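Students often ask why we bother encoding 3D structure as a string. The short answer is that it lets us treat folding as translation between two languages. Here is a chain of 168 residues written in the first language.
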Amino acid sequence: MKKITVTLLAIFTFTSFFQIVYAATSEVTWDNYEKYRDIHPSNESRKHFRERTFKNFEKHFSKLAAKLPEGQVLKIKVSDVDLAGDTHSGGINQVRIIKDIFIPRINFSFELLNTDKRIVKSGDIVLKDMGFMMNTHLKYRNQALGYEKAMLDKWFADTFKSLIIKAK
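And here it is in the second language, the structure alphabet:
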């Protein structure tokens, strides 16, 4: 019985290496972030909120880039962010109010580089989602930056549809 378990474990370990999918990576730079339209916290320090928000965006760009072919690099240079909603003071507290008039926007340029570091695709993007509140099946409903992530997903799928690797 012990020999069978060890053998099965060895087979599983060996075959799991063949299922590793190497994919593209992403690099995100935040250009002139002090001048962004809206990276305002509700009830935390501006620096902590900005760092947490940027890290969240970076993780999402990385997740999107992982759908592209191995060895490619998706470079993103963000020039402006306006998060869904707006912050309003309520006494000593600030609260982010989400209304359809406070749409999410993000401006950035991108370059997709192949393994030879040549540009496969590039562009200057001005993304905004004027119907962000009408999306009844929000994939990121319980996550930070859910509206922005959904907007980026749509852009990514439209921009890279011929390059996206289908999961097996």
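Translate back mentally: The first helix runs from residue 2 to 16. Keep this in mind for the problem set.
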